[in-house]
Amino acid sequence: MNMLQMPADLDISDQHLVDGVVGRQLRPLAKTITLIESQRPDHRARARRVLEALLPHTGGAMRVGISGVPGVGKSTFIEALGLLLIERGLKVAVLAVDPSSSVTGGSILGDKTRMELLSQRTEAFIRPSPSAGSLGGVAGKTRETLLVCEAAGFDVVIVETVGVGQSETAVAGMTDIFCLLQLPNAGDDLQAIKKGIMELADLIVINKADIDPRQAAVAKSQIKTALGMLRHSSPNWVPPVLTLSALKKDGVAQFWDEITRYRDTMRGSGEFDEKRRTQAQAWMWELIDSGLRQRFREHPQVRAELAALQAAVARGETTPAAAAHSLLNHLSEH
Ligand code: GDP
């Protein structure tokens, strides 16, 4: 008996994937994610169909973004949080957006020994960052993987990223709550403000408070002051600042209390669903933008003329506006 509403062109093997994911089986889940991460155009098409079929089963998880510089304690913290949530009967997926993996070929977040205890639990699913492509490509694949994890019944999906570059914006754009992990020293939070990261944060955690609790308390009040100068996107939420020790598992339960308080507040005001709607539309536009750019670059006339026009612009023989206009015109010719 099949209750799913399937697009007509879903073939038998894709149907198996969909049924397996919805049936909460691990192998079909992993296979679907592999399909999503593939660059092959035929795989992309299949992935789109599978995702479309899974869509009615998505939306049920709490999507938590976690960011911080390398060494701040992200994996220690996520492991402690994951184990706590499992203790409470929840299933947890951990995904990563690691822009370093596509730039250098090495990965900051990909180390296999990370979260060793959590990775042994059947209630947990840990997937390293997709490694190929631009940040936009990597983030897009993680976004799709998040939906698959939801369809597979995970109650909490944690998306982790490193505090470098633009990846925080991408992760904040795919999660319900974005949490920033900080070290208990003053220079660190100024960096975050400068980069505009603090504005994205719905919750700030000062980790490693066990090392010097007094300094952590000072950092907390400094960050609170700094936050007072920023405006949060919701009028109903003042981002809390928590001090915590991931290593000693001290404060992890309070962290989760704050997450549930945020969810309840946002649900109460209608902002929870509104944020997801806005995120979905922004994602669509991102895909349209990148799709247009790709089609433009692949257009035969554009390919024929691009190099010469670029050179002409560089030499000052034509204006950037005139060159862009003439190239873009090719898109409307057939
Ligand atoms: P990540 O790079 O952000 O994932 O950081 P890790 O979780 O790998 O932690 C980096 C180092 O900091 C490790 O040696 C951890 O044991 C240590 N660490 C993490 N959290 C804490 C904490 O709360 N207190 C102390 N003292 N050390 C911690």
In short:
The chain has 334 residues and is α/β, with parallel strands linked by helices. Helices cover 54% and strands 11% of the residues.
Give the helix/strand layout.
Layout (H helix, E strand, L loop, with lengths): L11 H11 L3 H12 L3 H14 L7 E7 L5 H14 L4 E6 L1 H6 L11 H4 L4 E3 L8 H17 L4 E7 L4 H6 L4 E6 L3 H9 L8 E4 L6 H16 L12 E3 L8 H18 L1 H28 L1 H16 L4 H10 L5
Parallel strand pairs: 1-4, 1-5, 2-3, 2-4, 5-6, 6-7
Helix pairs in contact: 1-2, 1-3, 2-3, 2-7, 9-10, 13-14
The structure holds guanosine-5'-diphosphate (GDP).
Textual characterization of the structure:
With 334 residues, the chain is of the alpha/beta class. The protein has three domains: 1-57, Up-down Bundle (Single alpha-helices involved in coiled-coils or other helix-helix interfaces), CATH 1.20.5.170; 58-268, Rossmann fold; 282-332, Orthogonal Bundle (Helix Hairpins). Helices cover 54% and strands 11% of the residues. The chain has 14 helices and seven strands. It has helices at 12-22, 26-37, 41-54, 74-87, 99-104, 116-119, 135-151, 167-172, 186-194, 213-228, 252-269, 271-298, 300-315, 320-329, and strands spanning 62-68, 92-97, 124-126, 156-162, 177-182, 203-206, 241-243. It has a seven-stranded parallel β-sheet, with helices on both faces. β5, α9 and β6 (203-206) form a beta-alpha-beta unit. The model has no long low-confidence stretch (mean pLDDT 89).
